[in-house]
Amino acid sequence: METHPTDETRSVTDAFGLLGHRYRRYAVRTLGEHRCELALADLADEAARLEYDDDLSAIASEDVRELYLSLYHTHVPKLVEGNAVTYDQDADIVAPLDRIDSLVQVLDAVE
Q1: Domain holding 102: CATH number?
Q2: What Pfam families has UniProt attached to this entry (predicted)?
């Protein structure tokens, strides 16, 4: 017998897909805490702080730049596609959507 996923199952699977990479988890956590739009550079700074568990001043600028580029090219577009954030490329601003709250709840539950 073939089973079909329910909307709830798809939603959970989708949430885990969005949270599957630590950089996206950092972005979701940061946007969920701030609950406002952030410049992508500021989001990258916060993600670097979380990645290296250190003050931003102690992290090599090249490492922050690489994280920024990864967010820009891969992770923010995935969050946009998942209806978790909007991204204004001209202003270089990432803004959380309502879905951020449910993704933060998933993070809280599994951490």
Answers
A1: 1.10.10
A2: DUF7344 (PF24035)
pLDDT in tens, the chain (111 residues): 455 555 555 678 889 999 999 999 999 999 999 999 999 999 999 999 999 999 999 999 999 999 999 999 999 999 999 999 999 999 999 999 999 999 999 999 987
* CA-to-CA dists, residue 39 to 1, 10, 12, 31, 43, angstroms: 49, 31, 28, 11, 6
**Residue 2 in domain:** no
